[in-house]
Amino acid sequence: MSPSPYKPITIPKMVPTSICGAASTCRSLKQCPSPATPSFQISHQPKQKPNFIATPRHKSEFNPTLVSTPKWSPLQRVAASALNTIEDRIIKDLLEKPHPLPKTADPSVQISGNYAPVGETAPHHDLPVSGSIPSSINGVYVRNGANPYFDPVGGHHLFDGDGMVHAVHIKNGQASYACRFTETERLVQERSIGRPVFPKAIGELHGHSGVARLVLFIARAALGIIDATRGIGVANAGLVYFNRRLLAMSEDDLPYQVRLTDNGDLQTVGRHDFSGQLRSAMIAHPKVDPVTKEMFALSYDVIHKPYLKYFYFSPDGKKSPDVEIPIDGPTMMHDFAITENFVIIPDQQVVFKMHELLRGGSPVVYDQNKTARFGILPKYAKNASGIKWVEVDNCFCFHLWNAWEDAATGEIVVIGSCMTPPDSIFNESDEHLKSVLSEIRLNSTTGKSTRKPILASSDQVNLEAGMVNKNFLGRKTQFSYLAVAEPWPKVSGFAKVDLLTGKMEKFLYGDNRYGGEPYFLPKDASQMGGEDEGYVLCFVHDEAACQSELLIVNASDLRLEASIKLPSRVPYGFHGTFIRSEELNGQA
Q: Can you tell me which residues bind Fe cation (predicted)?
C-alpha cells in the first residue's frame, strides 16, 4: 500500500484570506460538475450574476418514471401558465436581473466546485479499501447535505438545496455506497410541475423581489397549483436515529423518515409526525440523552406566536406537551444543549424581521442592540415559569457541542463555537469570519456569566461542525472533534481538542483535499470504554483528482485506519450519524 497523505500534524495558523471556487478539471459532468466560476475573496469584489449550474435534473440518471403530471383543472393550468410568465418576465427580468447578487445568494459562489449538486447513485458494493476497516465497525454511516434538483432561477444559498442523504454501509470489513434525494413533499411537487415553485428561504427572500416571490407563492397555493399544507421543507441539514427510525431534518418542516434497505439503498417513507403528535416544525439538532434515551427538541416560528416551543419524546416516541418559551421576537434557534437535568436554550442576536423585506433588505438580521442570553430550564418542566436567563456578552454560537453541570461551582458549562460576525453565513460582510471554540459558564444563582476561548491565541483556528462522544452528551467531556474550517468555508482537516487543557491535535487531509463534519463513533456502544476510544469518520474529496472517499481515523492517536474509495463525487455537506447493525435489525 502506498504511503498515506493523511497525517496527524500541527501547522501554523492559516489566514482565511481567500476561498477558491475550485472548479474541477474532471471530464465527466456526472461525476464532477465543473461550473465556470471565478475564485472569490471574502473582501468585496464585483458581484457575479448566476451562471448555469448542472443540477441533477440535467443528468443522465434522471428517471422520468419518478415524475407524475399534476392533476390540474383547465382553469388551474391557465393560472399556472400566467403565474409562470409573471415570474419570468416581471420578477426575474425586471426586479432581480438589474441587481447583482451578494455572494451569500449567488449560485456561482454558493454551489461551485464540490459544492455543486450531484445525481443519485444506486448502491455500489465491494468498494476498494486501503488499510483495514476496524472489526468493531458494522452498520451504516449516513450524512445529509443540500443538493438542488433544479437550476437556481434567481438567488440561491447553500442551505436552500434539496436534501440528499449519502450512505456507506460497512459489514465485516467490506463497504457499499449509495445516495438518494429525500423525497420531500416540496421536491415531489416541484418535480411534477417541472420547475421550482417554492421560495428559497435565504437565497430568494430578500428585498422587494422577495416580497414578490412570497406573493407569487401565496397565489399558487390559493389557486391549488401547489399544496403548502403538505410541507415546504428541504430536510437537508440533520440526521438522527431515534425510536427505530432514521429522520432527516431541517428546521422549516417536520422530519422525514428515510429507510435503509437490506441491499444498501435508501427509501423515503415520508413526513414523520410521531403518529400525529408533532404539529410544528422541529429544529435539525435534537438531542438524544445517552442514559434515558429520550429525545429533546425545539421548534421556532418566524411569523406567529409562540415564537419558540420546547418538547421531548420518550424512548418509544411519546411526545410531551409543548412548553412555550418566552422570547421577544422570532429568533434563529439552530442548536441548543442538554445537561443531565436541564435544557440550555440560546436566545442570540440573529433574528428574523420580515418587515426588512419591504425596506429592500434581508429578513435575517444581526440585532446589535440585543444581548445574547441562555435560558436554563429543567428538562421535565411543564411550563416556562422556572426558566432562568443568563446574559452572555458578544456571543453567537451557531452550534453548541456539549454542556454539563459543574457540581463544584454550581454553574452550567457550555461548549460552543462563538462566531463573528454573527450573520456572516447569511449576509455579506467585509469582516473575516472567526469561529472561536469557547467555554461559557452560566451561574443561574447570580445571573452572571463568563466566556473564554479554549485554545491559546497562538493556536486559534476556525473550528466549526463536529461533536463530542455522544455516550457522554450532557455530561462532562474532555475531548471534542471539530472541523478545521480554513480556508473558510472549506474544511482542511479536523482537530481533537482537550477541553480541559486547550491542547489541540490536527489531522489534515493534504493538498487540495477537503471534507466536512468529523463524526466520532465510539468503539463501544455503551459508556464502558474511554472517552476517546473510537473512530472519526469523515468524507473527503480530492479536488485535483476528482475523487471522494470515506476516511476512518483512530480517535485516540489520529492514525488513519482505512480509506474507502467512493464510486461518485460526494459534495461538501452538513451533519451525519452512524447506525449500528444491531439497531438496523429493528428498523421500523
A: 285, 334, 399, 575
